[in-house]
Every structure is written in structure tokens, then in C-alpha cells.
Amino acid sequence: MSDRHEEPEAVIAGTSMGGAMDLGVDEAETLEKRPGPDGAGPEDRPRSLWSDAWRDLRRNPVFIVSALVILFLVFISLWPSAITSGSPLKCDLSKAQEGSQPGHPFGFDGQGCDVYTRTVYGARTSVAVGVLATLGVAVLGSVLGALAGFFGGISDSVLSRITDVFFAIPVVLGGLVLLSVITSNTVWPVIGFIVLLGWPQISRIARGAVITAKQNDYVQAARALGASNSRLLLRHIAPNAVAPVIVVATIALGTYIALEATLSYLGVGLKPPSVSWGIDISAASPYIRNAPHALLWPAGALAITVLAFIMLGDAVRDALDPKLR
Amino acid sequence: MLLEVRDLHVEFRTRDGVAKAVNGVTYGVDEGETLAVLGESGSGKSVTAQAVMGILDTPPGRITGGEVVFQGRDLLKLKEEERRRIRGAEMAMIFQDALSALNPVLTVGDQLAEMFTVHRGMSRKDARAKAVELMDRVRIPAARERVRQYPHQFSGGMRQRIMIAMAIALEPALIIADEPTTALDVTVQAQVMELLAELQREYRMGLILITHDLGVVADVADRIAVMYAGRIVESAPVHEIYKAPAHPYTRGLLDSIPRLDHKGRELYAIKGLPPNLTRIPPGCPFHPRCPLARDVCTTDDPPLYEVSGTRGSACHFWRECLDG
Amino acid sequence: MGRYVVRRLLQMIPVFIGATLLIFLMVNVMGDPIAGLCGERQCDPATAARLEQEFGLDKPVWQQYLTYMGNVFTGDFGTAFNGQEVTELMATAFPVTIRLTLIAILFEIVIGVTLGVVTGLRRGRPVDTGVLLLTLVVISVPTFVTGLLLQLLLGVKWGWIRPSVSSDAPFDELILPGLVLASVSLAYVTRLTRTSIAENRRSDYVRTAVAKGLPRRRVVVRHLLRNSLIPVVTFIGADIGFLMGGAIVTERIFNIHGVGYQLYQGILRQNTQTVVGFVTVLVLVFLVANLVVDLLYAVLDPRIRYV
């Protein structure tokens, strides 16, 4: 779930590297990238990063499909009863492990609960954990990262060391240790844990983006004109740091959903009677031989959900990163 | 003729449509001759050179017509393996920015020696000795020690010397130098150019010098071909062009050189910008920027008129231009 | 270089202390170490008090941490829940997990890099799109699902392998678990290699290599690959620490008695000494692996110099 790269603290020898690279762009490249220099034609007007990205995304089938999947997921997490009339907790032991039958398309699990209903209700947990954890991580991470990147100095060093500490702890392991003793049966401990271990990833991204933006000439100019720190951060620097944070956060959302399921599978995330795909997969795994459907449906739903978020993030990144065009 | 490019056409697929980068370029260079190809960026001078070398990125680039006759053979009809044997050995290229054009993770010795092991089948030891010899030849001090260093450990001028050494390694008949001095300090530019000219005389190589620097051209070139929007607009022996250009674009280029005797006067600049290559204007591509333009220029694309036996101009009104 | 290593080692100290302290606190504050010591039964108050004193649990947490770390540096990692020395557990668990990690890394290098090179050179073609989609699927499906599915298919349905690994965990039985452990990283390695190759393919020095008339194979292997693999090698190096720490899930699925298994047991039984001991070693492995990666960087890319 984490950005696994330690930036090596090293210096690229030959300080003119960046500038020299620009000069090395061959003509063909220049041709490709140059927007019509004559300024003729209405489509030649300068486009902003976001409208440009949006134009790309609307034409990208990957984006459309994943966005539709996500909209559907959000819909069924808000109104699960719209597509299932059953209750995820109404189980009939006499029907345990039975396969598909009329009214119960996905069959029954080991406790005789309807797999279809449980799979539908499981979306709510996953979406809630994913969205809330991502919000927490994004807010905490970008605020801390941006402040460290902007002010530098001691605050930056301290924050860097703290992120190092969190990176050094394997995520699943940390989850096991922290969550194994918590008995609360809500989504909050899991969300809290993810925020606790997830923010360094975003804070690194935000810090890097802010440091890059800070060196831009127009920021230097604004500073020279006497803009206050808060104005610099909010008006000139933050807009540049938002794009990478959004991309990483979208992809992270998918991985958080996977993490919740993993923790629930290990028995420390959510616990019954909560409804979670991770719990169902874990419960189904001992009798995988006789009733694989009880494992495959929630596993499939989980995979599609995570995939949708990761593909969405991927598509947004491609659209926002002009280098890959 | 050592090399003759005839009616070459190159296109690029871009997001905004097909960019016609080269539109019917014809030029030639003889043994021991230096042809300067002049033009702004985007005029197609580098793309033409890449097509001649056979290092065009395809896609997005595509050669849509023409011939490249080198030592009597049309290179565009050869198989890739045959072209590869010619590249580096019979014709070599010097790039603008040696820092990015040299491989950052290999020593300069390795990169030089490679020419001999690959094309001549030499042993690594002999090739290494050759590399030292070459570095001596382009006057890099302490060649024996520096052969083990990496490109970033050299100064800009020294790196460009290594590029030159690499180009002359197998004594090719033709060298294409794409803005060889543009990335260098002014003081170093002259030394590198001098070295290149000296080596060219010594090996009697043909040299195509791609540049936008008219100052460099005057000293070393025999002929000049001026390119605009993917075509040759004027081609002439160097002294004739400096005396009296036969195309308003050439005139504009010459007038925009800062000159000491014009001190205090406003510097001339050609108005407007070069055309978007996906939408080259009809008629003469230069007409929107041309001080001599008339109605005919907006409709008829001028051919390369013969001004004299050795001189051509793609301007309907070359006579007026020549008279100033 | 020497000064850089010293500086990095010094920087590792606070990270090491922070990480171990964090885990120590988590285990101590959140859990009840005495309950763990009495095994399944409830401790009677007298025994609990005696144990508390014996293990110094009545002292402040920071003092306990210091005592513990002091012991660790003399090689005493304490006692596990079943009365075994923690070091003994480590001696049996680490070789298994190291074997597992080795297999995973091998998969990353062989399959990941190969796929990355193939797709990077054919960007936009059907092969590329297909592999790219596959990597997305692999990244999206959580490891425990991948593991369970492969176990179901290869182990139960088709009977190609034993569904669970025997206790001495020989190399051949670890092949499938190794692949499962590697799966997500493998997909990342593929994507990273692909991006890196595609980026460098357009670089000036590759164009120079082509202009020199080198055969395509040589251009790719000697010029393109050498540069493109620098970020990949560093990723794989840093991954070693993550794989060892992340083996918990894989080891649980295939019932492998490695580090992850012992940690899981330790956590379930709230045995501080086992958990903190293993985590301490894992954090060390992680930190050292990262340092080695940074040093490797300088070997691979001569432009990097350490200050």
C-alpha cells in the first residue's frame, strides 16, 4: 500500500542535467508537442491541465467503465435494498453450503446465509472504509506534507524521520498488532489504523510536489512581490500539488479496500456480525472444496471493486501526466 | 556526388493531425564539401538528416517519398541490416547535446571502442587502444587516463570532442553534424568547429552542418541550403548568399544578425512565426511573413527557380530580392 | 562514500528506535502481556503479580523498553509463549521465510523484468495492452484472494501441488507460495520496467547508439536495458524487506511455519517478546536493505555521488 521508494539522498552530478535535457529535445518531439504556434483556429487556444485531462478522460473507455462500476458500488452501498430484498443476517443452517437456486442466485454459505445478499451488503463496508480512510489520509497527509515541504528546515527533517519510522513497519503486521486487541465492532478502528499508517505515503507526495512548485519562477516572483506565506501556499502552490495527491489517493482507495478485507480475513479487521467481503472470504476458505461459490462471489466483488478504483486512478494519472502523452 | 537527397517527403502523426515536416527537399554534398543547412527549429532540417541517417522514429514519423542516394545506392531501398552497416561506418552523426547523446552509465572508452568491436570485429583490447588514439586525435588531454571516465566527468567542449571522435572513428565518407556547437559556451564553440573543419579536410569527408547560426556558416561552409516549413527556399554557394540573398527569408535571416557597424540601430526580426506544420498555408508557405508577398504568393507554391548554374531560389520575385 | 554510509547508519538509529518503540508500545499498551504468559487459562492474581515483577512489568514502559533493547543487544530476545527461547523460534522461522522471499524475488526478476522489457518495447501493441491489464488485475486482487484461488485450482482441483506446505518447507513446495507472495510486486516490477524502457527508448543516447550502427540487440541490452533497470533494481532491493514483513498472509494460507506464522501466533497470544523480537529483526532487515539499495544505486549509475 505504500510508496516503496526511499528517495536516495544523492546528488545527480553535473548540475546542468535538467537544462541540458531540454535542449536535447529533437525536432520530431518538438513538432509533436507544439500547440499550433500560429494561434489560428479556435482549437488552438491554450487549455488548462484539468480541462485537457477531462477531455482525455471522457474518451477513455477504461475511465468510463471504472467510473460506472464505482457509481454502481456507491449506489448499492447507499441503498442495498434496491437490488436485494433479503437480510444479510437472516441465515438458515439447513441450507448451508447449498448452491445456486431460484431467488438465491449465488447460493448459500457455510452458515446458510444468502451469498448474494451478503455480497451486496459487503459493498457498504468496503466503500465506507475506502472513502473515509482515503479522506483521512489525504487531509492529514497533504497538510503535514505541504507544511514540511513549504517550511523545510527542522520541521521537514522531523517529519521525514517520522515517515521513515512508519514505512519501516510492515502494514499488515502493524494492523495485526494494533487491531487484535480492539473489540469494537465498527469500521472506525480499521479506518483509524489505515489513516495512522497511510498518511506518510501522501505526505511524501505532497511534500515533493510542494518543493517542486516552490521553485517555480512565478512563486518566487509572488514571494518577491510580498505575498504572505498562507497566500503563497493556497493560491500558488497548492493547485500544483493537488493533482499528484488526487491520483495517489484514488489508487490508494482501492488498496485500502483490499487492506480492510485482508485484515478482516486475518480476523482482526471487522468481526461478525459485521458484513464484509473479507470476513466472508475467510469464513468460506475452510470449506473451499465443497462450496467454492461462497468464496468466489465475495472475492470477485472485492477484486472488481479494487480494480475499478485502481484503474480510475491510473486513467486520471495518464490524463494528468503530459509526459506520457 | 557523395550524397544526393531527392524530393524527400517526411510526415509525422501528431495529436493535431499529420504534420508535414519535410516537403520535397533536394540537396547534395560532395566529397570534401561542406553543406550548411540553415533554418529555424521546426524547419525540417534535423528531420531530413535523421531520414538520411535512417534513425527517424517510425512511428510517429514516416518517409512518404523521395530518394536518398549515397555512394550510388538509394538508401531508402536497402534492408535495415544493410543500412545498419553503413551507419556509423560510412556516414556518422554528431548530435547537439553530447551530455544526453552519450550513454551516462558507460565510460567514454567503452562507447568509443564499441565502434571498432561491432563494425571491425576488433578485440576489446585493440579497440580500447584505438579509443585512446581517437581521444588523442581530438586533443583530449590525458586520454589514457580519461578513457575510463564517464561522460558527466567531462566539460561540455570535451564531451563534444568525444562525440566527434566517435563520428570519425571509422573514417566515414559523410558526417552529419546537427547543431554541433549550439549547446556550448561561445569561447568553446570556435575551437570545436575548428577541430571539426580540420578533421574534415584531413579525411576529405563530406559534411552536412545543420545550424541556425549564420556566423558559423560563413567560416566553414562551401554551400548553403536554407530551409523553411520543410522545403529548401534557397540554395547557393556561401559567398553569393552573403553578398545578395535571392529569397526574402534568407534576407530576413541575414538582417537579423547583430552587427557591430549597425550599433544603435534596432535589431531586425522577421515578423510572425513559422507555420504550424499540420496546416501549412497554401501558395508560398512564407507569404504570411513576407514583405514582398503579392496575390500570386497566396495561391502558387513557387518551384526552386534557377538563379544561376549553382544557385536556386523558391521565390516568385527572386530577381527583386536579389536587387535588394 | 564511507562518510555517507556512516551518516546513513546514524540516521537509521532514530528510525530503528522509533519503529521498535512504536511496536513495543502497541503491544504493551493495547494488550495485556500477563494474559499472554499464562497461556489459555486466566492468571490468578498472585501469579500475575509475581510474573509482573519477574518481567519488570511493574516498571514504567520506557524503562521496560530500555531493558528489553539492552537484552536484545546481548542476544537475549526473551521467551516465547510456549517457553521456547525467541531466538530458537527465529532460527527455525527465518530460514523458511528467507527461502520464500528468495523465490519471490526470483519471480520478480525473471517474469517481471522480462514482461516489462517486452511491453516497453512494444508500447501500444496488443501484447502491451494485454499485459498491462493483467498487471492491473494482479495488483487489484488482494494477495489472500490470489493465494486462496491458486490453492483451490492447483492444489485442490488439479492436484498439481500440495495445498499446504510441510513443516521443513523445502524449496519445491514453496514455489507456488513464492509466486503468490511476489504477485503484487511482480506486477509493479513489470509496470516499472515498462515505463522505464519506454521512456529511455526515446532518449538521445539510444538514438546515438542506433546512429552508431549497432545491432538492435546490442542497442537494447547494452544501452537501453542498462539504464532502464536502475529504478527496477532499487525497487526489487527495497522489496526484500516488504516481502519478509508481508509474508504473514501467504504463510497463513499455505500453512508455512515461517516468520509470519510465528508473529501471528505471538500476536494472538499477546506475547510481547515474540512480537517485538521478530519485528525488531524485520525492521533491521528493512533498513539495511534500503541502505544497500542506495549504495547499489551509485554502482549502477555513475552520475550519483554521495555527499
From TrEMBL, chain A:
<keyword id="KW-1003">Cell membrane</keyword>
<dbReference type="InterPro" id="IPR050366">
    <property type="entry name" value="BP-dependent_transpt_permease"/>
</dbReference>
<keyword id="KW-0813">Transport</keyword>
<feature type="transmembrane region" description="Helical">
    <location>
        <begin position="165"/>
        <end position="182"/>
    </location>
</feature>
<feature type="domain" description="ABC transmembrane type-1">
    <location>
        <begin position="123"/>
        <end position="313"/>
    </location>
</feature>
<dbReference type="InterPro" id="IPR000515">
    <property type="entry name" value="MetI-like"/>
</dbReference>
<dbReference type="InterPro" id="IPR025966">
    <property type="entry name" value="OppC_N"/>
</dbReference>
<keyword id="KW-0472">Membrane</keyword>
<keyword id="KW-1133">Transmembrane helix</keyword>
<comment type="similarity">
    <text>Belongs to the binding-protein-dependent transport system permease family.</text>
</comment>
<dbReference type="InterPro" id="IPR035906">
    <property type="entry name" value="MetI-like_sf"/>
</dbReference>
<keyword id="KW-0812">Transmembrane</keyword>
<dbReference type="Pfam" id="PF00528">
    <property type="entry name" value="BPD_transp_1"/>
</dbReference>
<feature type="transmembrane region" description="Helical">
    <location>
        <begin position="62"/>
        <end position="80"/>
    </location>
</feature>
<protein>
    <submittedName>
        <fullName>ABC transporter permease</fullName>
    </submittedName>
</protein>
From TrEMBL, chain B:
<keyword id="KW-1003">Cell membrane</keyword>
<feature type="domain" description="ABC transporter">
    <location>
        <begin position="5"/>
        <end position="254"/>
    </location>
</feature>
<protein>
    <submittedName>
        <fullName>ABC transporter ATP-binding protein</fullName>
    </submittedName>
</protein>
<dbReference type="InterPro" id="IPR003439">
    <property type="entry name" value="ABC_transporter-like_ATP-bd"/>
</dbReference>
<dbReference type="Pfam" id="PF08352">
    <property type="entry name" value="oligo_HPY"/>
</dbReference>
<dbReference type="InterPro" id="IPR013563">
    <property type="entry name" value="Oligopep_ABC_C"/>
</dbReference>
<dbReference type="GO" id="GO:0005524">
    <property type="term" value="F:ATP binding"/>
</dbReference>
<dbReference type="InterPro" id="IPR027417">
    <property type="entry name" value="P-loop_NTPase"/>
</dbReference>
<dbReference type="InterPro" id="IPR050388">
    <property type="entry name" value="ABC_Ni/Peptide_Import"/>
</dbReference>
<comment type="similarity">
    <text>Belongs to the ABC transporter superfamily.</text>
</comment>
<dbReference type="Pfam" id="PF00005">
    <property type="entry name" value="ABC_tran"/>
</dbReference>
<dbReference type="InterPro" id="IPR003593">
    <property type="entry name" value="AAA+_ATPase"/>
</dbReference>
<keyword id="KW-0813">Transport</keyword>
<keyword id="KW-0547">Nucleotide-binding</keyword>
<keyword id="KW-0472">Membrane</keyword>
Automatic annotation (TrEMBL), chain C:
<feature type="transmembrane region" description="Helical">
    <location>
        <begin position="96"/>
        <end position="118"/>
    </location>
</feature>
<dbReference type="Pfam" id="PF19300">
    <property type="entry name" value="BPD_transp_1_N"/>
</dbReference>
<dbReference type="InterPro" id="IPR035906">
    <property type="entry name" value="MetI-like_sf"/>
</dbReference>
<keyword id="KW-1003">Cell membrane</keyword>
<dbReference type="InterPro" id="IPR000515">
    <property type="entry name" value="MetI-like"/>
</dbReference>
<comment type="similarity">
    <text>Belongs to the binding-protein-dependent transport system permease family.</text>
</comment>
<dbReference type="Pfam" id="PF00528">
    <property type="entry name" value="BPD_transp_1"/>
</dbReference>
<feature type="transmembrane region" description="Helical">
    <location>
        <begin position="275"/>
        <end position="300"/>
    </location>
</feature>
<dbReference type="InterPro" id="IPR045621">
    <property type="entry name" value="BPD_transp_1_N"/>
</dbReference>
<feature type="transmembrane region" description="Helical">
    <location>
        <begin position="174"/>
        <end position="193"/>
    </location>
</feature>
<keyword id="KW-0812">Transmembrane</keyword>
<keyword id="KW-0472">Membrane</keyword>
<protein>
    <submittedName>
        <fullName>ABC transporter permease</fullName>
    </submittedName>
</protein>
<feature type="domain" description="ABC transmembrane type-1">
    <location>
        <begin position="94"/>
        <end position="297"/>
    </location>
</feature>
<feature type="transmembrane region" description="Helical">
    <location>
        <begin position="130"/>
        <end position="154"/>
    </location>
</feature>
